[in-house]
Amino acid sequence: MKKACKSNLPALIFLFALLILWQLGAMKVNAAYILPTPVQILQRLWQLRVALFTVHLPATMVVTAVGLAISLVLGLGLAVLMDASPFCRKAIYPVVVASQTIPTTAIAPLFVLWFGYGIWSKVLVTVLITFFPITITVYDGLQSARVEMMELLLTYGAALDFMDTVYKTAITAAPHAVSFEISIDETEVPTTPEAHYFIARELAERQVVAGSVAPRFCGEFQKGVDYRGDTDQFQREFAVHAAIAEAFGYRVSVHSGSDKFSIFPYVGKLSGGRVHLKTSGTSWVEAVRVIAMCDPALFRRMAAFSRLHFEEARAYYHVSASLDRMPDMDSIPDKGLPALLDMVDNKKIAFNPAVELSYLTQEEQGKLVDTMESEQATPSLSQAQRLKKFSQEGKLTEEAMSAIMSEEKKSDMDKVTLRSDTLRRYFPKSYTPKQMEQTIIKLLDVWQKQRQKNQER
User: Fold this and answer.
1) Cα separation, 320 vs 395, whole angstroms
2) pLDDT tens for residues 189-244?
3) Is 99 helix (H, G, I), strand (E, B) or coil?
4) Which residues of 259-276 are buried (b: 16+ CB within 10 A; e: fewer)?
5) pLDDT tens digits for 263-291?
6) I want to staple 203 with a disulfide (CB 3.0 to 4.6 A). Which of 208, 277, 296, 403 is the partner?
7) What three-state secondary structure class fits 293?
8) Is residue 246 packed enough to be buried (19+ CB in 10 Å), middle (13-18) or exposed (0-12)?
9) How far, rounded to the nearest angstrom, does the alpha carbon of residue 139 sit from its chain's CA centroid?
10) Which residues pair with 253 in a beta bridge?
């Protein structure tokens, strides 16, 4: 409500300014029969309120309602005829357009002569004014829908044929039950609700029973990292996709769902449990972490192979990773990798500082972890670079670590950090971080207003 009022405020201010100018101009003219003021108009309306609201307004509403009803029937009928038949379109469309070239002031007296002073002359004037926009708007809508359906058919037609063939030759012939999932998420743009509905309807007409369908959602779904995008937009669009899936009796599937913690609450709530969440990316990352811990040589070979085939593999998945940010694995100590990787993955240390800290000895890394815990701080990139330099010069003592880590970072000077586990005990478990933030802001607003009242006393 507040947002709607705020968005309409400029229009209200402009309207108020026009009324003031009108009032001032009419007062200067001082001739009510030429230009009455808004105040005079309101006064006259109030004086005539009984006749206006009991006699004239009902009569006008009857004429308007009858005329609009005839226009709707006539407009819809003509629009459907023109859309269904090219011959009808060529015959009707020019006449419809030509009907609007005749001025209403010229044709209205003729209606009075033909149909008298009764209701029907007024109804016909109403029809003449309203049927044209109804006819043209409906016709354009039908035409655009036809074009959109053709585009959907061209986009997904071959894929639907392939789905039909796979289902009827492999899935139905399987010796055991198979959950058939259909993925339409490997596209350049998100799947629109219209496209999702089109696919679901086509599958139903072809009697293809899908266990789940995976649309392409808005935002970025990269492997092993949290969702990147507008969570409010995702929530709105996911609700529509989940409703389509429920209507056609299958689950909505979320691909690359590993570690998408910011949208998990929405997925669970809006799907009603009818969801397939793919989290193989997390399993892969954890498997690679185990290899890094147990067989560093194999991990380095995997990293070299990945670097060599990165562009080839990137063609199959959308990722924002860059080889320029990938460190030289040969320069990173074996025993230091797992602990630093854990910190990077848990967002305790950013990636670039973690690379600099990997040059510290194992003993130095252990002391740094203790210093971080005692100082309740993580190193910035510049601090990590100085720690690395001190280590290479043999000067990285515990005192030096503590001195560097105790420095106040520029980014922290005006920052207040509240731990999530501290805040959680004040909120229901179902609250998302965004809901928690909104509640805190509302409470602070109340506190600030109360504080201002107390100061004014």
Assistant:
1) 38
2) 889 898 999 999 999 999 999 999 999 998 888 776 778 888 889 999 999 999 99
3) coil
4) bbebbbbbbeebbeeebb
5) 888 898 999 888 988 887 778 878 888 88
6) 208
7) helix
8) middle
9) 30
10) 276
